[in-house]
Amino acid sequence: MPELKVKRALLSVSDKEGIVEFAQGLVELGVALISSGGTASVLAEAGVPVTKVPDVTGAPEILGGRVKTLHPKIHGGILADRRKDEHMAQLTEQGIEAIDLVVCNLYPFERTVEHPSVKEDDALEQIDIGGPAMVRAAAKNHPSVAVVVNPARYATVLEELSSTGAVSDATRRSLAHEAFRHTASYDAAIAGYFSRGEGFPSIVVLSGEKVADLRYGENPHQQAAFYKSAGAPSGLAAAEQLHGKELSYNNLLDTDAAWRLVLELESPAAAIIKHSNPCGVAQAGSLEDAYARALDCDRTSAFGGIVALNAECDAATAVQIAEIFTEVVIAPGFTEGALAALTGKKNLRILTAKPSYPRDPEVRRVTGGYLIQDPDSIDPLDDLKVVTTAQPTEEQMADLRFAWTVCKHVKSNAIVLAKGLTAVGVGAGQMSRVESTKLAAMRAGDRAIGTVCASDAFFPFRDGLDAAVEAGAVAVIQPGGSVRDDEVVAAADEHRIPMLFTGRRHFRH
Q1: Fewer Cβ close by (within 10 Å): the C or N end of the chain?
Q2: What is the pLDDT, as a whole number, of residue 437?
Q3: Catalytic residue IDs
Q4: pLDDT digit string, tens, across residues 223-276
Q5: Closest by CA position to 506, among listed 387, 379, 401, 360
Q6: CB burial class (10 A; 0-12, 13-18, 19+) of residue 382?
Q7: SS3 letters across 228-284
Q8: For 68-103, how does the pLDDT look when each residue is reduced to its tens digit (9 = 90+)?
Q9: Do strands 415-418 and 423-427 pair parallel, antiparallel, or not at all (unpaired)?
């Protein structure tokens, strides 16, 4: 069927946005309207002529509205294939009129269950039954019926009806595709709600809503888009862009890495990220000082980096950020003075986001499947074990905790040298731990003297610890767990430095 003349439409929507205007437009085109429940009331109050569903079915709404449209006179009218004479004959025999257009969107289940304290009875009442049945029926029968689930499509459907007198096959197919996505996402949200606290269920349904098409992916020859997870937006998906050109795929990856890091640090703190690795991190008494110290870690690598701040950005900090080419700056907020200093850089992307640490499972694609894991949780850092004769000073303990937190966000094998709550050398992504240690020492140079050293996993041999001490490290924190732990502990005692075991590894791949 190349085109569909619309004579009769069924309207039943939870989201009432634009429905009155759409209905009025349909009536002006001579379309007869059927509606149920709250939608019928809204249309009637607006003076739109409408026939209520019970007047069509001959059956009242029952069970507090749970059963309204689940009736042969509704579903027969939707599912009849106009291309089959026997279907149309059966409609005539049963006194059923065909329905050409279904306009329906579903109960706000996701909005209801986004509140952690929601009662299950309230959640159950927001599981739509009749709506998905009508939407799926109309989408299945799209060669004969048009279905609209998105208020944003009302105008284009009306325009097509007005200009051509029909809905084209291409439009009906596009609308059906959107309808199936709508019901699939809805069911995914319900399945997700019932999976809460159950660990890893036997079947996982992933659902997302497109936020934006991106210029390209990790490289210019790759296409990409950004999607937000089902449910209430959080994290980077909920960030607001205040200024600058559109975010790229790599911008989003690096900004997320930077934001996750600063959210684990005490405020005020600043982090500079390049290719998902920290090239500068610091905590200080002021945000201005924290950023200055972070920048000093590796000024060369910071060029073109991503800056994340865990406190409101003030003018003094913003002036510093504006002095070097920066791709993105993200913070909980910006003062007027800060925005004045930063918006002079027309391409600088400025984002605000709520400081809430992500708790959602992490999902990664592998060939033919997915890997899902709990997020790498923040260590309590209150049960650290000193395994050497030497004991850390209070100042060293503060630096060890800081370095350990930063190290968790560095690609493995990861080594961080820090002093004064400031990273001065970062060794990332090397295939051997001793090489990562040497890289961190090279980055730090003379600043490595008096630092603490954090390692994301155990030292398999003493060579890594020896390299850190040779560079100037005076205390070490690592998970422990090597078969050669005794050898490494003995090396630390030989160097007369304290070493702590955390008992928890932080690989990052």
Answers
A1: C
A2: 96
A3: 140, 275
A4: 999 998 876 667 888 899 999 999 999 999 999 999 999 999 998 999 999 999
A5: 379
A6: exposed
A7: EECCCCCHHHHCEEEECCCCCHHHHHHHHHHHHHHHCCCCCEEEEEECCEEEEEEEC
A8: 778 888 888 898 888 888 888 887 888 888 899 999
A9: antiparallel
Is the pLDDT at 172 greater than 80? The verdict is yes
* Spatial separation of the C-alpha atoms in residues 382 and 373, rounded to whole Å: 24
Residue bearing tokens 């950023």: 291
Overall residue count recorded for the chain in this entry: 509
Neighbours of 109 (CB within 10 A): 22
Any alpha helices (H) in 264-344, and if so which ranges?
Answer: 287-297, 299-302, 315-322, 336-342
Q: Write phi, then psi, for 325 (nearest 5 degrees).
A: -60, 120
CA distances from 271 to 218, 252, 256, 306, 419 (A): 22, 15, 12, 8, 15
- The dihedral over CA atoms of 195, 198, 204, 208, expressed in degrees to the nearest 10, equals 50
- CATH superfamily for 3-194 is Methylglyoxal synthase-like domain (3.40.50.1380)
Q: What was the pLDDT predicted at 232?
A: 61
Instruction: Please state which CATH class domain 237-373 belongs to.
Output: alpha beta
Q: Which residue spans of the chain are classified as CATH 3.40.140.20? A: 237-373, 385-501
Q: Specify the pTM.
A: 0.83
Residues of the chain with CATH 3.40.50.1380: 3-194
The answer to whether 476 touches 465, Cβ cutoff 8 Å, is: yes
Other CB atoms within 10 Å distance of the CB of residue 76:
19
Distance (Å, rounded) from C-alpha 266 to C-alpha 218?
Answer: 32
Secondary structure (3-state) at 435: helix
Q: Name the one residue in this structure whose structure tokens are 């509606």.
A: 35
Give the whole-angstrom CA distance, residue 334 versus residue 15: 34
Helix, strand, coil tally for the chain in percent (to 5): 40, 20, 40
Report, at the CATH architecture level, how domain 385-501 is classified: 3-Layer(aba) Sandwich (3.40)
Residue 375: count other Cβ atoms within 10 Å of its Cβ: 12
